[in-house]
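Batch job 17 of 40 flagged for manual review because the log was empty.
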Amino acid sequence: MATISSARPSWQRGRVFKFFASLKLAVVLLAVLIVAAIAGTIWESSFDAKVARAYVYRAPWFNLWLILLGANLIVSALSRWPWRKHHVAFLVTHLGIITLLTGSLIGRIFGIEGTMTLFKGDPPSNHLLIDEHQLRVHDSDGVLKGYRAEFLHRPPTPKHPRDLGKLASGARFSVIDYAEAIDAKLKPRPLDSGGTAALHFTIKTAMMGQQLESWLLAGDAQNGKFAMGLANIELKRGKAEIVKPGHPEQSDATSRDPGEVTSQLTQRDPSTSLGMTDLEESIFVFAKMPEQISHVAKGGGTGAKISFSPPQDGDKGQLTISLAGKAQTLDVAQNLKREIEIAGTPFTVRIENYWADLRMQDGKPVSLSDSPNNPAVVVTIRGRGVPIATAAPNTHGNGQAVSTNGGPSTIPNIAPAMNEANAAENHLTFFVAD
């Protein structure tokens, strides 16, 4: 930085000019930016990129700090006026930093960050995946409008709403409140007469360590069923039918006293099929639970059992495939999207996709983050062999998504089907007699 001489022009001797040209200001600005960058990096690793952007990189104070640094560089360069030949390196260095700061500021304010997936041979696409919430409105003019809806840093309130502009009708569109999550719960009250029967229950999950409680209303289309992962519970009016083992066509329906709750269990035998044929099966495998969900696309089930070792030290974990008396271990990261022969068998396996933090959004599997909170993979096994019976045959000829423990399929665009052999283990129906 320059030491301003009294021989310089009068505009260089002002207090404001000296303040912005001072070396002390530059040191303070750079020190704060360094600390902010370190904090942003730590928050991004500990939480996610949204937190770092909200509190550091896209925060108003960070933009102001960049503007102050740019002003300091500009005034510092002007402090050498009139410039001489030996000032060239000094000026070029300052101009380069100013250009970088200006480009960064423009990109942060007006830029769009997202990803676009392109495959060879596919038609052109203009769909950009943006990692942020968006509020979509079907306006009266027939146009689907999208508004950025990230309220992590400064959520709107009734006193300070977020104005999103005008709609086609001329009305102002504002967001007056925001909550990260809303849990709507029933609160039934006992009545002396009328009303409907209700059941209060608690369910625990071993994988996620959750304990949930809920109410079921008998015969209610909206509140009569509860589904969480592989568990399905419902409350109906009527009489339970206990099907005797080995005689599915015979049932013993008995009356129950009013208010008595019974459970209906059904046992079915899986069908079998013989003969060599072409087989193709897609299997969802999870690292934090032993169940696997399969979708038979061709022929029948392969009988493959797959275990998924959780990711460690930054890798994507390992798969151990047991099939036809053989076992083979594959590294997920090294074999993703590759067709691999299973040694000693007529089958091949391909790891189609990997999710580090699997969740279902709009009926499709997505990864909420890169942290291995709920790792999962989907693999496809192909080959020729004798199909292994896993479910009742589909009379419509379509593929079925079958869980080895009876849960619903999470494979997109595939209708879920219950494993007939184990349906009773995951579907519980309570009856309240009239």
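Reviewer: the log was empty due to a logging misconfiguration, but the result itself is present. Residues 230 and 407 are 4 Å apart (CA to CA). Unflagging and moving on to job 18.
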